[in-house]
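re: ur question from earlier - yeah i can do the single chain one, its not a big deal. heres the input i used so u can compare w yours
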Amino acid sequence: MEGIADMGGTSGWGPAHPPRADEPVFAEPWQGRAAALTILATRVSGRNVDAFRHAQERLDRAAYLDEGYFGRWLNAAELMLTEGSILAPGEIDARARALGGEHVENPPVSVPESAGPDAGPPTAAIAAWRSAPGSLRTIDAAPAFAVGQRVRAKNISPPGHTRLPGYVRGHAGVVEVIQPAAVFPDTHAHFLGENPQHVYSVRFDSHELWGEGADSFAVTVELFENYLETTS
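and the output i got, formated as tokens:
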């Protein structure tokens, strides 16, 4: 899907600044609490890390950008809890107003009659996720591409979650490293199976991505096998 999260390679955001060597993990105490609450929300709603990322990319511009990195996490946590019928829409706002002294009733939680692709996983999927050993997998299939091979990122726009950056779609690069196989985010985020496959580190030239007027440098992107095709 095309969402606010896919801003890599787009203009208008200013320069990227590397973190300071002494930068703390959490600049303010609330950020650590936000991280813990998000991890808890992911677990109690039965989500996985890819579903969490999909929640973030479905936030509107204000929810994604205006409250910073950990504010974005909290907004995604609220979305996951609401879609999982653990919280009612607007319940967090109601609770905040109640804490401020207002007399506000919590809105009722309603269970959707038919679960959509983002409503949450079945019970079996929750149990499998809780026991799954991370995202790396061993598969029998040989890699479809070799180190040094020129490949092209498919020019596709998946309707749901994807880790294929928009700025590399349709562009050619060279395989630098074949990484271990891993769970495929595009299906895992929607509880449609792990579909593990090989991952490749692909090196793209800046001029290939942004034209002759770009500065000269290279970008290496980790891409799943389903995202790639051979060049003609």
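The two ends are 27 Å apart (CA to CA). not sure if urs matches, ping me
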